[in-house]
Each structure stands twice: as structure tokens, then as C-alpha cells.
Amino acid sequence: MKLIKTLTGDRDIALLVGQVLRTGVITASAIAFVGGVLYLAKHGADSLPDYSTFTGEGKEYTTFGGIFRGLTTFRPSAVIQFGALILLATPILRVFFSLIGFAVEKDRMYVVITLLVLGIILFSMFGGLKV
């Protein structure tokens, strides 16, 4: 709570949000790069893929649970997907920290708007249409 009390001005909050974005993108890039290096180390000498037919990714890399299970065994595709998850989470964290900043500033209108945006993002990610 000490961090929130020290954030008093718009400039402080903008710096924090900028730092969150910068850290998230750098972290996601580093993780995806490591996954790419691991993937090339494991599959770099494989024969060329056949692009005449499309084969989708299995369930293990399209769900949170599958990605995290793949991380426990250090599978390169799971590491790359985890980097993509971090990259997707970065703007959501930005909205969350903006919400905290508006709450600290006691700017009710922007708190409501930011809560609405955060709710729409989370609903579209987790509660969207099931086809």
C-alpha cells in the first residue's frame, strides 16, 4: 500500500503504466526468444514442413492448462505460447494499473469507464461465445 500512497500525480501513474508496458513487452519477447531458440535446437534439422495441408495446433497449446503443463516439461512450443500469453496480459495490466491510478486520484468517472473496459476485456477472454 505504500506504493499506492506515493503515487499522487498523473505523471507518477503515467510512469508506472509505462514501466509496466515496457517490462511486459521485454519479458514476453525474452521468453518467446528463448522458446524459439529451444525450438530450433530441437527441430532445426527436421525436414521442411508440408504447407499444402493445414494441421492446427493440438489442445495442449490452446488452453492455459495445456500451456502450463507444457512449461513443466519445458516444451519449446509451450515456452513460445507462454511468451505470447505474457504479451497479451501486458495491456490488461496497463488497464488495471490505470484503474488503480484513477482510484487513487479519486476520479470516479474514469474509474467507472476503466472498470467497464476491464470488464469487457475479461468477459471477451473468459466468457465469450462457446461455439
Structure, explained:
This is DUF1634 domain-containing protein. Keywords: Membrane, Transmembrane, Transmembrane helix. The protein has 131 residues and is mostly helical. It has one domain. 73% of the residues lie in helices and 0% in strands. The protein is built from 5 helices and no strands. The longest helix is centred in the N-terminal third of the chain and has 34 residues. It starts with a helix and ends in a 5-residue tail after the last helix.
Question: What is the topology?
Answer:
Layout (H helix, E strand, L loop, with lengths): L1 H5 L3 H34 L20 H9 L3 H29 L3 H19 L5
Helix pairs in contact: 2-4, 3-4, 4-5
Labels describing this entry:
131 residues, mainly alpha, 5 helices, 73% helix, 0% strand, elongated, DUF1634, membrane
Compact description:
The protein has 131 residues and is mainly alpha-helical. Helix content is 73%, strand content 0%. The chain has one domain.
What structural category arises from helix and sheet content? mainly alpha
Shape: elongated
Helix content: over 70%
Q: Please report the total strand number as a whole number.
A: 0
Organism: Chitinophaga fulva
Transmembrane segments: 20-41, 78-97, 109-129
Protein name: DUF1634 domain-containing protein
Pfam families: DUF1634
